[in-house]
Specification:
Structural class: mainly alpha
Strand content: under 5%
Number of strands: 0
Order of helices and strands: HHHHHH
CATH class: Mainly Alpha
CATH architecture: Up-down Bundle
Largest sheet: none
Length: 230
């Protein structure tokens, strides 16, 4: 069965290829750190990315969506470059930009859910919810690793992500159910009027604040189209 939704098709193709870039980047990131616990956490994140890639491919197969050769080559090169860069740019920047990009990746899967709903498709809700929440856990892991670093306030002012700013509205300490998660990432949907998170009628409960949550989650993180460097 083919679907007529160009944005959903492109988002799935991009996510599939970008997940491999992320995994490659995390291989380099894990190799560049010395602490055994950090290595293990980043390696688990790499495993998560490979799992997401496989899950996205299954959805693509269901709707006869082809893998983009262009995106595969593009993200292959990006992933390899980032992997190599992690050995030369120090400890802070790989952690920071991985967290920043993971923050943006959270909404990728919730926007997919919104697009599926536009087509009347709800069978993937649980899978997309799980992947979106996992990305949030990755973001929180990186932020918790950086929160006492003296460079974080400066980078937050310049790049717009840190203790006070996030690119999503997911709160791990007050997660919505799968059914209510349609309230997430409303402002990330192209051409959709921006809403006030406090009054969004999509759910009876007020939406979570966009401030990153400092959770104790041990589930590790992932990077982005233009630089998912862990």
């Amino acid at each position: 069965m083919k679907i007529q939704h160009p944005r959903l098709v492109r988002l799935l193709q991009t996510a599939y290829s970008a997940e491999r870039a992320a995994a490659f980047a995390y291989i380099g990131h894990a190799g560049s750190v010395r602490d055994a616990n950090q290595k293990a956490a980043i390696h688990q994140i790499e495993i998560d990315e490979w799992g997401h890639r496989e899950s996205v491919l299954q959805v693509m197969h269901q709707y006869d969506i082809p893998v983009s050769r262009y995106l595969e080559w593009k993200f292959f090169l990006i992933g390899k470059l980032i992997s190599a860069a992690c050995y030369i740019i120090g400890w802070f920047m790989p952690y920071y930009f991985a967290g920043r990009l993971e923050s943006g990746n959270v909404c990728e899967y919730f926007v997919m859910m919104h697009y599926c709903h536009e087509l009347g498709i709800r069978e993937h809700d649980a899978l997309l919810y799980e992947m979106g929440i996992k990305e949030k856990e990755h973001e929180v892991y990186f932020l918790d690793s950086l929160k006492s670093n003296r460079l974080l306030p400066l980078f937050e002012r310049i790049f717009g992500w840190g203790r006070r700013k996030s690119f999503n509205d997911v709160d791990l300490d007050a997660k919505y159910s799968v059914e209510d998660s349609r309230a997430y990432c409303q402002n990330s949907i192209p051409d959709k009027p921006r809403t006030d998170p406090a009054t969004d009628p999509a759910t009876e409960r007020p939406q979570a604040e966009s401030t990153p949550q400092h959770s104790n989650s041990t589930s590790p993180p992932h990077p982005d189209a233009t630089g998912r460097c862990p």
